[in-house]
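Regression check, 4'-phosphopantetheine case 206:
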Amino acid sequence: MLALRGSPDSPDLPGFPAGVYYRGEVTIAVCPGSFDPLTLGHLDIVRRARSLFDEVILGVARNSSKSALLSAEQRVEIARAALAVSPGLEDVRVEIVPGLLVDFCRDAGAAAVVKGLRGGADFDAELPMALMNRHLVGVETVFVPGDPALAHVASSLVKDVARFGGPVDDLVPAGVGDLVRQALADRAARADGSAQAPPTTEGTGR
Ligand code: PNS
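Current build output:
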């Protein structure tokens, strides 16, 4: 087992701060992300996490440096539907991370956070978050190399390709491409509507 386990007699290991990784016999991992939308790359990482841990929770979280296309509820629904038809992943729970990831991990009794790496750029982006999360509550992050065949698959690229009419259905679970295209169309219609709306005088007193 990857996670460090303490015993009732000696819950701490010398040199290790007491962290959320000292738990019972079942090891739980959280796979967090924006999942906007979930891709086949994400499913690959969840599968690898599930092979290492007894329980895996897919945590749909908010990345404050990104503006999501899909609502959190849509992202949860997509993940649940995809996992339900993925052999071996049916028991992966999907939950919203309402605030800090470390609070969610502590409440869930998670031994670790699992993040996938497609390459060095991912590591550079992930390392500060992993160190911050460990600083905050002691939770460790396990980095798992993803399938190289999926190294080009990123939610941001899926949205960009779809925005310009390119094919994305082989990069995401079944049905997700349609939801992304619909959300992009809705967003474009909203932007168009607000661009054509007459200038408002609300609040000017005139
Ligand atoms: O898929 P992403 O956008 O790379 O995932 C990043 C995410 C959502 C996991 C990260 O932004 C996060 O943990 N958000 C929850 C809020 C939080 O804990 N922020 C501090 C991170 S050190």
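Comparison notes: The CA atoms of residues 41 and 153 lie 6 Å apart. Residues 28-147 form a domain with the Rossmann fold fold (CATH 3.40.50.620). No diff flagged against the previous build.
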